[in-house]
Write a sequence for this structure.
């Protein structure tokens, strides 16, 4: 990376700081607007909590302080990367996140690979054979998958591949109570990963297929493509060597945007398949009004999304140097 590229990277990195602060502030305000708090949940667990006991809990958790003071303490902790303690589970938030993060990253990465690879391939093929039965079939399948709710798709895959055919496990991340070598454990996780990754990836695969088809058709109509054809190049070389790289730009942009959507979608998929990732942790924290845990997960997620956006900007600059100059 040259000096100009490095200064551009640092400038973009600095621009992300106020974005992260704004997102963290918005998360705090939205959660404070919700009714109830962790003291209510802890009191409910005892079965006979008194008003005095609830007030004591709120003092211990700092929930009796004014909201603005809670916000100041929250922002101070975020600036030092101190995510606090889980009020319900009584352990540091960062420990809970680190326990669940690998499972979510595995699921998101597998779903993203399936979505991008299959979606781009389907989109290019549909554009290459525009108007043929391949194009029509790809478009119809993409539309049907896009319109299908993820939870229903996940349940139908469980019925077909787990219950009817008995080929794939219906839930969990790996077999429990079985001693395995590192290799067999990795294969076991991959076996359990197929259904949730396909369920999460199929929806986005349909999006990429439709976007890539439209982008390819636009690029294939440009003058430089006509020139390449006039030189006698085969249609395959024109498609993959001359049109593919430029048509890929909108897909790269969408990947950055959909990383956040993947995390949101993983909540549903992890719940359906019992996948022990951050999505289920968010769901549990929301039900338990475990505010510090929820804020910690949202903060880490926000930082991850903006960093991925920065990486996408860099990749976009490599694919199209004009955007890097801008």
């Amino acid at each position: 990376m040259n000096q100009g590229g490095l200064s551009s990277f640092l400038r973009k990195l600095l621009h992300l700081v106020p974005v992260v602060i704004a997102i963290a502030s918005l998360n705090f305000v939205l959660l404070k607007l919700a009714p109830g708090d962790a003291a209510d949940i802890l009191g409910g667990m005892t079965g006979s909590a008194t008003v005095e006991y609830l007030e004591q809990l709120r003092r211990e958790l700092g929930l009796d302080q004014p909201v603005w003071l809670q916000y100041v303490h929250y922002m101070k902790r975020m600036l030092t990367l101190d995510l606090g303690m889980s009020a319900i589970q009584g352990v540091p938030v960062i420990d809970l996140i680190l326990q669940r993060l690998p499972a979510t990253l595995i699921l998101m990465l597998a779903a993203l690979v399936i979505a991008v690879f299959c979606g781009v391939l389907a989109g290019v093929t549909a554009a290459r054979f525009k108007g043929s039965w391949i194009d029509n079939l790809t478009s119809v399948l993409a539309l049907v998958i896009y319109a299908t709710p993820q939870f229903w798709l996940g349940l139908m895959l469980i019925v077909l591949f787990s219950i009817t055919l008995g080929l794939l496990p219906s839930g969990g991340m790996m077999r429990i109570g079985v001693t395995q070598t590192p290799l067999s454990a990795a294969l076991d996780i991959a076996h359990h990963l197929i259904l949730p990754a396909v369920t999460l990836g199929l929806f986005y695969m349909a999006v990429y297929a439709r976007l890539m088809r439209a982008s390819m058709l636009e690029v294939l109509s440009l003058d430089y493509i006509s020139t390449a054809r006039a030189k006698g190049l085969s249609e395959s070389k024109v498609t993959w060597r001359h049109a593919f790289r430029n048509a890929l730009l909108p897909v790269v942009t969408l990947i950055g945007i959909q990383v956040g959507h993947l995390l949101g979608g993983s909540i549903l998929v992890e719940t359906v398949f019992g996948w022990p990732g951050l999505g289920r942790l968010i769901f549990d924290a929301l039900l338990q009004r475990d505010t510090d845990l929820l804020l910690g997960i949202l903060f880490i997620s926000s930082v991850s999304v903006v960093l991925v956006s920065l990486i996408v900007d860099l990749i976009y600059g490599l694919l199209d140097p004009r955007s890097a100059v801008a």
